[in-house]
Each structure stands twice: as structure tokens, then as C-alpha cells.
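Contributing: when you submit paired examples, paste them exactly as shown. First protein:
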Amino acid sequence: MHSKLGSILKRWHSFSANPRQLQKKWAGVFYKNESDYLRSISCADCRSFDSSKNACGIGFGTPLRKCVVSSIEAHFNNCVDEHVLEIGFGRFMLAKSLITRSGGVWTGIEPKIPKSVVPTLGQGGHGDAANIPFGDATFDRVFGIQSIEHWGQKVGGRVPSDYGECLKEVSRVLKPGGTVYFDAPIYFHGHEMFIANDLPRIRALFCDELWSNVKIEKWRQSYEPLERYAPSDTVLKQDWPVELVSYSADDLHKARDSVSVYMIAITAEKRIAC
């Protein structure tokens, strides 16, 4: 939903979200374990699903955006006394609102902001995952909303960043035992491993030397009874031909009529010994 009403509902949700209510909504285990690192949240079992209406209870946004909202609600409803860094912040303020309202301090970096705007703790400014302008062990948590898939992106003439170097930089600014959260779309845009649903390759980005307790949550891969969310014509024509190198573009195009765009949320902890 890109309507004016949708924008108003999105802003209102960010403004009115109550951390205590969301702690109750998402208390306990809200996923099913599939393997040592894979978890799944089907639409039918999601706590945002409204069974009386057979619809998602998040009343705005695309199917993917609804998952982003639910995952943020689940992961950011209690940030008491935490210093939290957001990489690639935009206009969607739900995470920032929950962080600050639950007792944390939000700081953000964004590469599109002029370099003259230097971020300080509690404020946003210029920066990116490869160049985080803060000292070692500054933050308790680092996160990105629909940003990690773009770090290694080439479309539009971008110069891709190296994922290993970016995650070393993220680890550097995290306190020992600090955590990360990154969500990203699958079968949509960004680096080819996200387009191709290569979850083992994505998991391998988080090397055991730096990270422990790495988990990947799959939101909406099992979408029934809700609608399938097909990859758009735009990404098929603009992104896939540029990004796909290691995978068969023909196979992915053939699969377009059966696959559904879904979201992953990656969480991990910085090893205390690092």
C-alpha cells in the first residue's frame, strides 16, 4: 500500500506502538525451529494474523512490509539501557520509536546523508556498514532494516561492499556479547544470494570466529491462507540481470510463478573472546 492512507497508518503505528503491549504480544517462542540455525514463522501461526478476518492484522503496507513490522515488534520491544546503532535508516521509524520508548538510545548512520553531517550518540548522520564512524565496543546492538541485501549490490552502478569487511566493522563497534539484527527480502532484490534464496550462503557470512548463536528466521515463506507475493516485473527486468552471476537466471525466472517473496531476519551475538 503506497497510498496516502497507508503512509498515515504507517506513521501512526510507529508513533503509537506500545513496548509493554508488544512484549506481551511476542512473549515466549513465536517461531518453529527447523534446524540448528533456521526458524520459521508461517502466516497462519504469526501473532499478527487475525483469524477472525483471515488476514494479517498489520493494516498497511505490502505483504513484505507487514512482516518487517511484525519482526521489529518482536525484536525491539525491550531495549532498556541499550545503545543501539541502525545502519541505513530511512523514514520508517518503528524500530527507533520502540528503542527509545523502551529505554534505549538510538543512533543512526545513512550513506545518502551528506558527509558533513557527522553522527553522534543519540543522533543520525553519515556513514555506512563499511565505515562506521564510532569507536570500538560502543554499541549493545547493531541492526539494519532492509539494508544488508544492498551492501553487495551492483545494480545502478553501485560499487559493492565486501560482506566480510562490513561484518568485521559491525563487530568492531559492538560490545562483547552484543547482538545484531538484519532483515532482508528473499526472491526480490539486492545481492544475488538474497534473490536466489541461498540461506546457507547467507548464514556463512557470519563466521564462527566473530559470531555465535546465529539464527535466520523465515517470515512468510509459508504464506497460506494469505496471498502469494510474486517477484515484481521491475526487479526481474532491472535487478536480476545485473545481480545474478552464480545462479541460473533462467531457472529463477521459470520459478517466478510458484515462489513467493518472503522475509528473513538474521540475529547473532558477537563472541565475547573477540
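Second protein:
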Amino acid sequence: MTILITGATGLVGSRLLPRLMEAGIDCRALIRNGKDVSAGVTSVEGDLFDTASLAQAVEGVSAIIHLAAVFRSPDNDLIWKCNLEGTLNLIAAVKVHVPEARFIMASTSHIYDIDTPRPGREDDEVDPEHAYPASKLAAENELRKSGLNWSIQRLGFVYGDGDGHLESLPEHMVNAKWHPAHKMSMVHHRDIATAIYLALSGAMDGHIVNIIDEAPTSIYELVELVGETMEPSSEPLVNPWHLHVDGSLARSLGFQPVVRSVYQAMQENLL
């Protein structure tokens, strides 16, 4: 099996790629500006807006893992360009060159509405306001109607393997004005790999799937885990289900997280 990974040098891709290599998977990466990738990975220099490099990157692959995205940026036009237009270009290349390939795309639990009345489920009607989740939803919709063999993984808050994402939470909580009791669904990098292995087997074909661990954790606890403090509060919690998503579909398809909670990650030195 030969697979193509986009976003291979990003937060998720740089931790997923070595695990795929260790599993004996032949990996190819679409790389911008000659960035380095793991030894043994075939790199194709280019990007999602270079038609020739896309054709070279997808040629002969049996699966595509599409991770490339712009998340935190003040430039909304850039977010839409990369997340939607870039995905459309990749879809077009796959349809022309490897239409039978499995197309696995990473998405986000930020898609679910802020005022959802329960943990977000994959079949919920959603209408995100911010550019990142809105652009990811638009990309999801384009992939779903592409005619390709697709699956979409909506990831919870990604952390672990020294990525620094959890440590950045105190800064973001101030900007977001989160209540300390607000809980987020989480996923460790190890279990992104767990989910990708399952998707490569075909178990998730034709599904949008929430990928999360088993223990949504409060902002208050997470901030303490990284050695910071947060003012406690017993004020009523508005929108209590925001960023708390339902993982039951993933479980029904065979997904079982290896890192079941952020506390397990801490105890096993996986943060």
C-alpha cells in the first residue's frame, strides 16, 4: 500500500507520519519549499495549488490522507483558500489520476454549533460561523459529493507527543472567555493514528466520524495540568455542550482509543 499525506510537516502530520512508517506503510508526502520529512518517506515538492505536483503526488497511490489546513490565522481569505480551494484541487487530481483511491480527510469538532443541545453528532445540522470550521465543512461537503471513496474524521482537541497545543490553551481560553467548567472532547496523537489505521482498512468508508477519547475534560483541569491557574467560578455555564462531541459512531465502527484520557497521557508521560 502506498499512501499520500498532505500536511505531513504540520502538528498532526509530523507525528502521524513516523507511526505509519513504523507500521510498514509506504508513505509519500506533498512538501512545500523542500521541508524535511522522516527518512524513508518519498517527498514530492509542491502544494495544493500546483497542478503538476498534485498529479505526481497522487500517481499510483491507494489512499490519500488529507491533513493540510490553515487553522489559527487572522487571514480569513487564506483559511478559505487553503481549506476549501486546496481540497477541491486535490479532489480533482485524485478523480483524474487515481479515482479508486481511498480519500481520508481530517476535519474538526469545531464544526458543531456553539448552542448544540447535546454532544455534537455526525448527523447534526450545522452552520459554523468562524472561517476555519466553516471552510472545513464546505470542504467536507465537496468531498462527500465527489464520487470518490471517502471518509472524514472530525478530531477533538488534539494534544500530546510534545506538540505544545495543550500548553497554548491558557492563552486561548482568555481570548475565548471560556467558563472553567467548560469541557472539551480530546484526542491524543496516538489515537489519530489508531483512527487512520482503521480508516485505511475501509471500516470508515462513507462516514463522517468523531474521533475522541473517553473523557471530555474541563478547561479548569487542563489549565492546571500545564501548570497554570484559572479563576474558579460557580456561575451558570452557557452552551455546556460546545466542543463536547459524541464518539459512539467511532466505537461502533471499531475505534478504541489507546490513550483514554488526558490523565492517562500525563501518567504515562505522553503529554
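If you have annotations for the second protein, write them as plain sentences, like these:
Residues 76-97 form the longest helix (22 residues).
The chain has one domain: 2-161+186-214+245-258.
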